Amino acid sequence: MGHTAVAVWDHKAAIEITKDWNGIDQVVLRNPHGASVKVSLHGGQVTSWRNEHGEELLFTSSKASFKPPKAIRGGIPVCFPQFGNCASLEQHGFAKNKIWTVDENPPPLHPNDSHGKSFVDLLLKSTEEELKCWPYSFEFRLRVSLGADGGLSLISRVRNINGKPFSFSFAYHTYLLVSDISEVRIEGLETLDYLDNLCKKERFTEQGDAVTFESEVDRVYLHCPNVIAVLDHERKRTYMIRKEGLPDVVVWNPWEKKSKSMVDFGDEEYKHMLCVDGAAMEKPITLKPGEEWTGRLELSVVPSSFCIEHFEIQRKSLRYGSNVQL
């Protein structure tokens, strides 16, 4: 696999642009401690996130297709301009199936946010093909960053360059790799209302002190706090999920029956994955001409003991927004 370009943003953090086995460009980010992220230009999709020990943190199906226009089953697909089904658009929108471009002259990182961090900016713009099914001109900039601490950050900026307003829904469809779905719990969604896609989007209220899994789950939790946690008891580690501009959280696991009906998903793979998506679903985002929307997702991994001690403090401090520099 040959390198086509190397760019260094500071003395230790670098990005490389290589080609995958299908000949499609992918960007590899590394930090000084050995953590890494891979981002495919097919869909602007994060396909791998590894910690400093080389352990994969995102799920990708062994049956996933990496050939356009088929979307990649796993990683973090970017779902835009819709998440779900719509008669005129493919499921979860077209952004995840398009070839993005690398911005060769991205704006710099904020000085307080730049130490040991590598990043790449990808661009997707309207083409005649998209305009036929979604007749609005837009510019979508996606920044993917890998921090010195191994944390993964995605910042999406969608600008309306159209002559009239448009609305869209959005999700970072995040496939987390877990040891055993039956031993996983989500904290931070308790007492919230959710729409259950398995019950014709009927509205319910979460009754448990955490979300656990023993059957298929497909829910949209509404008006969520900006920090939630996914605890993997077997690995004794916790995914911390922070989000901004994304009021909702989608939780999905297909379980056994649906897994067997999906051609790009292994029959038993539901046991080792969980989608927990920062999303804007219930109330679509509307942009007037010239307006821009920003949605940010930050993922980090901590020991579960650390999470139990600090989770409530972090959640309360960010519940109503934060001062994180975008």
Automatic annotation (TrEMBL):
UniProt-recorded Gene Ontology molecular function terms: carbohydrate binding; glucose-6-phosphate 1-epimerase activity
Name listed for the protein in its UniProt record: glucose-6-phosphate 1-epimerase
Catalytic activity: alpha-D-glucose 6-phosphate = beta-D-glucose 6-phosphate
GO-annotated cellular components: cytoplasm
BP term (GO), one: carbohydrate metabolic process
UniProt entry keywords in alphabetical sequence: Isomerase
CDD domains assigned to the protein according to its UniProt record, in alphabetical order: D-hex-6-P-epi_like (cd09020)
Keyword Isomerase on entry: yes
Entry keyword annotation includes Isomerase: yes
Enzyme class: isomerase
Listed SUPFAM superfamilies: Galactose mutarotase-like
Enzyme Commission no: 5.1.3.15
UniProt similarity note: Belongs to the glucose-6-phosphate 1-epimerase family.
